[in-house]
Amino acid sequence: MSLPAVGSAAPDFSLPSTSGDSVTLSSFRGTHNVLIAFFPMAFTGTCTAEMCEFSTDYAAFERRDTVVLPISTDSIPTLTEFKAKERMTIDLLSDFHRAVSRLYGTLVEERNHATRAYILVDKAGVVRWAFAEPNPGEKRSNAELLQQLDALS
User: Fold this and answer.
1) pLDDT tens-digit series, residues 126-140
2) Is residue 27 part of a domain?
3) How many domains is the chain partitioned into structurally?
4) Residue 23 belongs to some domain of the structure
5) Which pTM value belongs to this model?
6) What is the pLDDT of residue 1?
7) Cα-based distances in Å from 57 to 5, 43, 67, 88, 129
8) For position 43, which CATH number holds?
9) DSSP result, 94-123
10) Are 73 and 47 in contact (CB under 8 A)?
11) Is residue 12 part of a domain?
12) Which amino acids are annotated catalytic?
């Protein structure tokens, strides 16, 4: 598994979202930083905590001109139910066909889902930071993620 190299152009993608729209990474170029957050599975403890924290702290990311794009291999119906059950305010993206997880080096083939990983893409579309959790039961804190964003300025 190999995440995109820091300093390289972030591979572009379009994925369906719980908003009902498709989200394309390159649509944020020139206007927003993007934090791509791959997570293994909806309705699991660490993933639920992480997505709820993104919802709670979203204004802190917005203040840094950053959009958070949480991606899992769950289907849109599953992600929609997950979002509603946990009262999340963020939209979740479905990589049901696993193409983006493969493209970003996050797919755990034997488990058929993505590992927990973070890729920070600046406004120019360049990867500025990438980190894959060695243990999918662990996650980075939003404070650490916000520090990585602050380092872009």
Assistant:
1) 999 999 999 878 899
2) no
3) 1
4) no
5) 0.94
6) 59
7) 27, 20, 12, 11, 20
8) 3.40.30.10
9) E-TT-HHHHHTT-EETTTTEEPPEEEEE-T
10) no
11) no
12) 47
